[in-house]
Design goal:
- The protein contains 16 helices and 19 strands.
- It has 474 residues and is an alpha/beta fold.
- The radius of gyration is 21 Å and the shape is globular.
Length: 474
């Protein structure tokens, strides 16, 4: 097993006890809740007359079910189930003294966007949430894990979960990213090389020159999609980039404590002689924009890469999955995804709904117009991101180009509101999953790509190489 990695250090510092079943009891430093997975857990502790153990370490927001149009957010929500979920979260947080970033506040947004931008996510933490993309928070050098309803109950009641320690795979990404290539392309490349099940039983430690050169928002995108590669979590060792991002944020340490915290954060970094269970090297030099051609994030290639033949795939399982993808996506081996028609362009989510994502997309859209046959949605990951975009007049760029400018929420990532694909529609999406039915209709089709690539697809009405645009940058 690994030794002297950040993961080992953070795990041992949060381990409370050895459990009889062989798992560890692990203390959770930050617990994030939202409206979909928490109501049953609150009900369980209410039935047992148990108080929330650490309300000051628990923070809530509403994101999955909230409408993204201003009129749609008027209460009561038009969807009765969504209104009931929201009311339950409001009641549960109020009764238990939990901070709630509600629908009418300026801090509402997607859980994994809100917590980082407020400075709640910090190096050395264990972070848990009833959402698989809790891996996002590992960008700070923390261990973020998605948990189920019974574990949410356990965290509420005790501050702890039962967990099994994972192996650690080091992924060194060398080289530098060319213009038009982003963090989203890096993580899709990793998933392509290692597979959607490649990380099972592991956490991923990301490092190397290309990772070090990313800003925090790029690192958040990388760690966010660790789960799509099968890993339990993913993280980047904290460094000056981390500290510069956190400094001065609302929940970050105060100035008089700052140096002490930085000293501790430095101490938990993986040692230079750390031992890993596995080491993988990825060369980012020459990497091109990545787009999915199939129905899981591992069915992906560069924009100019031919879709693989069945004979080239390693086993029957991969061949059957590919054939299902060919049928659903209406693609054939030997084609490339360049020129693939799109009906919808969606920019947002906990993967790519941050300020830098909208800035990059706006570079492409400025002075251009969305294709007449494309429905284009821009959905900031938080109300704070929306306000920052509007302060820079980015919203005007999107509106003038033909995008609908929305309020914060998960939106078309999982289509739990009116933002959904229609029958057979194709979406160029900055989200994290291209599963059948994920964005709405079971016949809808999703092509994952970077925000800049989404913008280019919206303009052209088809999947397009954003490197052909002179404005593209990193």
């Amino acid at each position: 097993m690994s030794q002297n990695t950040l993961y080992d250090d953070v795990w041992e510092k949060h381990k409370v006890a050895d459990l009889p079943n062989g798992q560890d009891q692990l203390f959770i430093g930050l617990h994030l809740v939202h409206e979909v997975t928490s109501p049953q857990a609150f009900g369980m502790i209410r039935e047992r007359d148990i108080d929330v153990a650490f309300p000051d370490r628990t923070f809530a927001t509403t994101d999955h079910i909230v409408p993204t149009t201003p009129e749609g957010r008027e209460r009561p929500l038009q969807d009765d189930q969504a209104e009931n979920m929201l009311q339950a979260l409001e009641r549960n947080t109020s009764e238990n003294g939990i901070t709630f970033f509600g629908l009418d506040g300026d801090k509402q947004g997607i859980t994994h966007v809100v917590a980082p931008e407020l400075g709640l996510s910090q190096p050395g933490m264990t972070v848990a949430c009833g959402d698989s993309h809790t891996a996002t928070h590992g960008a700070f050098g923390s261990i973020g894990v998605g948990i189920g309803t019974t574990q949410i109950r356990d965290v509420l009641a005790t501050g702890c979960i039962a967990a099994e320690k994972q192996k650690v795979r080091r992924i060194d990404v060398s080289g530098s990213l060319a213009p038009g290539v982003y963090a989203k392309d890096v993580i899709l490349k990793i998933i392509k090389d290692l597979g959607v099940d490649g990380g099972v039983g592991h956490v991923y430690e990301y490092g190397g020159e290309a990772i070090r050169d990313l800003d925090m928002e790029g690192r958040l995108a990388i760690c966010n999609m660790s789960i799509e590669g099968g890993a339990r979590a993913g993280y980047v060792n904290p460094d000056q980039t981390t500290y510069d991002y956190l400094k001065g944020r609302e929940y970050a340490p105060d100035d008089d404590e700052w140096d002490e915290y930085v000293e501790y954060w430095d101490s938990i970094r993986s040692d230079e002689d750390a031992e890993y269970d596995d080491v993988v090297e990825i060369d980012a030099n020459g990497l091109a924009p990545m787009v999915t051609w199939g129905i899981n994030p591992g069915q992906v290639g560069t924009i100019d890469e031919e879709i693989p033949s069945l004979d080239s795939l390693p086993d029957d399982t991969a061949r059957k999955a590919a054939q299902k993808a060919f049928d659903h996506m209406e693609v054939e081996p030997g084609q490339t995804m360049e020129g693939y028609d799109v009906d919808v362009a969606f920019l947002g989510t906990c993967t790519n709904g941050r300020l830098s994502d909208f800035r990059e997309a706006a570079r492409i859209l400025d002075g251009r117009t969305v294709d007449d046959d494309v429905w284009a949605l821009a959905v900031p990951g938080s109300e704070s991101v929306r306000q920052q975009c509007e302060a820079e007049d980015l919203d005007e760029v999107f509106r003038e180009a033909g995008f609908e400018w929305r309020r914060a929420g998960c939106s078309m990532c999982l289509a739990m509101n009116d933002d959904a694909l229609g029958a057979g529609e194709v979406c160029a999406s900055s989200s994290n999953r291209n599963f059948i039915g994920r964005q709405g209709d079971k016949d809808g089709r999703t092509v994952l790509m970077s925000p800049a690539m989404v913008a280019a697809a919206a303009v052209e009405g088809e999947v397009t190489d954003v490197r052909d645009y002179p404005e593209v940058g990193n």
